[in-house]
């Protein structure tokens, strides 16, 4: 990307464009972005997102953003492949762009991707699950997918499946089935899946809502089974705390937003060039061991910022420790 | 006698169109008041203003001597002024009973009292000869039945002032007679009745006073019937002498036209054979349900006969669906103009183009507004629509003029078989005569014309032959001088010709 | 002829009296759209035959329970459709009422009072819709499309984009409303009550007549002195209150508030009402039909789960089964429609 | 009186001739819903005044470009609405055509041929809708609600739930259709062409008159010999083909196929058509209005980005601005409506 805007006086104009304003994971990233902007100071940060997940509309908003926030844009999207032309357009306008959460599509000049590995995330949940069952366990494990057709959820599922297959060959894996993203349909679908696969030993999802629904089912029916999922929404954390969910694999969304904006802001303020490659911010398994700590961390924006400070300082002090070639992103 | 209701100096303009320019109407209890005038004279508008459906631009309304203004027809009805409007204001999806009590349903607490509604409605419906289950959906009723329901709705109010805007235009003679009888009874009960009709004989047989409107003005104000001769009334309405209706010289049937051979339709027609030659106007008469309109439906392909054959002028069997029939040259003019005739929200020219240019695509693949409007202007002149602008939306025309537009849209298709079901419903005296002349001209040009009409005079005035139906078959064929109202009426009621 | 007519009339009378006993019941069932009920039952039987696990009391109860929210919205929607109006904001009203009630509870308001306020809020949101429609003079479709986003936005903003948890789950509000009585979930009992109430309102009160009159012929309604704006306002408020009630029931069952809850319910509710036999062109409505329509959709989505459809094919399968179910309904219905063929002079 | 009438007629004639030059243009603009255009322009001016960055050529071009898909769907939808029908499957037709075209290309079909097949596929999907509506005899609303899921499901299943990438982006298909000519994106030129074509179809052909006739009074249309089923089939196929075209253009721009693309477009398209001045009750339509309606919605969602609205409030703000824009449109429109008193209908 082009030269920095250092020394231009007024606040630098940055933006964070993300998939939807109404779901928690994306909001976490936005919180992170806000925190980074506040830490640097003198940043005019615009946050935009469609109300629901809507790729084309996000493209529209991104295109507006590159006209408005010329000092840099962090783009978080679930449909990166729609952004080939828009990203090239940003490059033409010399607006630096950082891809967040999903790797930039081929054919674009975006050099920096900040995200966790969703395959790793799935594997982490898989490992956590494996700890719950003996090596010779037999039976059925049921997988669910909130949004069929969404690449990163598929990666999580693939990661999970590979671990279970390798380490617990006695188990049969069913699904993934459509578990639905809207809360009531997610509950209804899981409720039916649990009954249709009544003998399964575990039900694993890849979205926060899955944990919420699986906990409620256990509460309602009094039946206990192994349930695990990803993303640390408030009520999903509560489900872990209540003991209905053995673990949540958290992609640490907040970190992604923070690091992305921090790097963009520094570039804009001081002309420090953006690194290139895939910056893996890592992930975290939330289970009974750390649940109280995480719930405290997720209390509000301030508590998040405080809790993540050590981690962000660590990562920003040593970029090369987290950077890998872009092509390895998964 | 005191005036029960007096409207003075009522004015109303719609945009540039003046509907009323200072009209007066004074009604007395115990008197039937005929309100007459050409199509578009302003009768319906005056009535809408009196009953609160439309706000006047000027004028005043006195009821029992006190200045009044109704905010709605419901308000008027609550004050004893009931109206049977010309364009049926009904709810086709609701049942008959619900249609009888809009805004005045009897209730107990929050609930309707259907039983009481039924008890109130039964006698009125019976009196009017409406034999339908009050729980039937109104939309499934025939136009005549719906008209009677509309009348029943007004009668149920037990009004002090009853205003009927062309209540008989869709009714067969028996129903009309029944209604007139009811009105006579109401007159004796000291109800003030306003009666609008284009059937002069009917009006004159009943009314006590006459008001005539012309171009929105009262030109004859509440004169006693006895003082007036028909000629005076017509002169007042038209501003000229009435056109003389002539049957025209009957031409020989020069060619084969439509033909039904041994046609049966379950429950409707049993083994009917009849023919209508090109150049001939054949009338079909009968009581409601006797099957005469079914003949039109069969020819038009709206109904499939279970037996028998139907032939069109080209000698081929009539198509079995409606669109093919139209393409083969059949036209079907219905008196139920608002339901099946017109697009009320569209200008006249779009309505007149609907069959020939739009449905049949005769204007080619590209339709230009200019030529369509020009064609419409010609048609509008032919059937005498007023105002003669083709850009007026059809819904804004007076009732009679709407009917003329329906006729015009079918004339545009240049039919070889013209089927008419009450084609002059609500059309005024002068225009009716001209339409009759027009029908004759169309026949002379080689079309076969079949006419059903509730107006038996009309059959007499234009038909070369009249076929009378009784219970699904033709019971008599009347020709020449034997075609008169009395003979037709007797025959359709009894099934035999008077000797 | 008069005699003949009288004879006919009195024979009709006789018949009517004879049928009076059975009449009301059969008429009620027929008027209230038996075809969609039959299609639903058929669907349940077919699924049950193929997957016996589906055919358990618990499962059927769950299907009912999960259909409650859309069914309530559909019941309200049938009023709107029958007067040729539509409300796209119902899903958001559902969500916003749910979130607000949850926030009130978390803020310390007693749960039952919070629930009552939630229903009230729904009514107020409906009133806002009515005010917008009336004063901005735009079609309800556009107005509620905008308020759909507005209300959803409020639901997100009020909860600060987070789920609302930490509610007093031991309170009788949750145990009663989220519980079971006489073998059925309480929310199903509420649905039954609301269905009966709304059916009564639609069929046996002047208000119901007004609603259907307007849908049947708006011009005639205005001519008859029916206030279209007034009736529309009442119906929109009713719709809002029903949406609020659905939200409160939803909270009682789900025990936490998610700002996205109810997204897409508007289309499902309209679909349920239309499948149930309330046409978009207005004039008629059936609350029972709308509720059964929602249950039909619930059976489809629930039943499909028992066939282990891969996630990538689930949407396809859902569409297909909805189509089949509706086709069955249509076949059953067409026998009735044939009786009332309307094309003729 | 006859003289008077003639005078009136000929003066009208005179006037008509006098206005003939300007007449056509003004009439076209007025008929084609100037109010939504005015509201859009006003909105652009206001946003531009507050945030000058919005007021750049590039930005406005981007708004146009991103409105193309919904605008095309809205243009087709205006035909359907004007005959009192609706198609909820357009978003899925868009997505499925896009995905299928992408798969064809990846399968080695030449991109332009694949594009043509994509449009054709859209038409076929529309035909499927028509067949379902006709033979199952259900309202288009329900039929297309089911096919919406069906087609979406196919889009997901065909691509095996994955995005389709790896297309030959150097092909002229992508460089031309996704490129810019004479200062405007090619897809905008296509939109302009389609808008003119559909307007011509609607205003100057018997087909267009039939469509509006049916919407105005279906019974009268049937009684005039217009085939309702036949016309509906043609319109649904047209809608499908336009959806397919939108999908192909979308692919050319986005250069990859996402199975969930176009979700929710159906409501946006209907909203755009209604905002543009095509009422749900049928009888009239304006293709231009529908397109401007879509652009209005595009301006709202683009413009809001320029105001730093807190994320949690963005949905609320969107709803609010849509409401404001529509209110402006309504005010402008009502001045016109006042001129055409609405009584007598
Ligand atoms: N809403 C309206 N807008 C414009 N013009 C109208 C409207 N209503 C009526 N008119 C016009 O006012 C005039 C009087 O109409 P009105 O319906 O009162 O006539 P009428 O005497 O009842 O005729 P008919 O015998 O045909 O029923 C007509 O020229 C009609 O076109
Ligand atoms: N032998 C018969 N064949 C056919 N129809 C008969 C016979 N006897 C009596 N009918 C009566 O004729 C009725 C058919 O009415 P149809 O609609 O054909 O008449 P219509 O003249 O069109 O009436 P309307 O003027 O009300 O439209 C039946 O309801 C039936 O009662
Ligand atoms: Mg009149
Ligand atoms: Mg008949």
Automatic annotation (TrEMBL), chain B:
Keywords: ATP-binding, Nucleotide-binding, Repeat, Transport. One of its GO terms (molecular function) is ATP binding. SMART domains: AAA. It comes from the Bacteria. Pfam families: ABC_tran. The keyword rRNA processing does not apply. Residues 5-240, 250-496 form the ABC transporter domain. This is Sugar ABC transporter ATP-binding protein.
TrEMBL record, chains C, D:
One of its GO terms (molecular function) is transmembrane transporter activity. InterPro entries: ABC_transp_permease. It is a multi-pass membrane protein. It is found in: Cell membrane. The chain crosses the membrane at residues 36-57, 63-81, 88-106, 112-133, 182-202, 235-255, 261-280, 287-307, 313-332. Keywords: Cell inner membrane, Cell membrane, Membrane, Transmembrane, Transmembrane helix, Transport. GO terms for cellular component: plasma membrane. Part of the ABC transporter complex LsrABCD involved in autoinducer 2 (AI-2) import. Probably responsible for the translocation of the substrate across the membrane. PANTHER family: ABC TRANSPORTER PERMEASE PROTEIN YPHD-RELATED-RELATED (PTHR32196), AUTOINDUCER 2 IMPORT SYSTEM PERMEASE PROTEIN LSRC (PTHR32196:SF29). The complex is composed of two ATP-binding proteins (LsrA), two transmembrane proteins (LsrC and LsrD) and a solute-binding protein (LsrB). This is Autoinducer 2 import system permease protein LsrC.
